[in-house]
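Below is our example:

___
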Amino acid sequence: MRALPLLFALALPAPAAALSFDLPSGARMAAEQHETLASVRLPIAGWQGGGVQTIWAEGQLARQAWQIPSPGMTTLQLLAPLREQLAAAGFDILYECAAADCGG
């Protein structure tokens, strides 16, 4: 059984309601961190000219790492439903990329 790490960075206006995802069966949280007040740089473009264009986001920060058993599932099959759930909750995607387009 293969576990695929997923990472989402969300900038939420304060105060933000708890966001809950409908995850695939067998998903388990591997780590969690919370900060009441934090500043983070969020990428809004891929690697270009020696750097990555970012914006500052400030406020409450929650980080979670999940392990999702995904035998036979592609990364897109895992990410597409999560992206749809974010859109349904009113979030806008500021930036997304794949492999080489991200600069890696």
